[in-house]
Amino acid sequence: YCTVRHVVSLCFRLLWKLLLPLVFLCLLLIAVLVLLVLAVRFWLQSNRNARRARDGRLSVAFFHPYCNAGGGGERVLWCAIRALQTR
User: What is the DSSP string of 17-55?
Assistant: First the structure.
């Protein structure tokens, strides 16, 4: 007849046989996903650098926090953009 210890041992072995490959598969999928994200990032960055070198134009970026607060920040931002466009 089956003892509790035998049933627990059997369940533990079955769980271990199912769980170990799943953990390995999850780790493998995570590693592939990380490598894929890094490869796409590298590809996008190299395309951007090649495009910049080909165009030879200067890129300008604005970081203007709180420009949507309604306190006049929008006007300052658009005046700065207009000043750059007219030069």
Answer: HHHHHHHHHHHHHHHHHHHHHHHHHHHHHHHHHHHHHHH
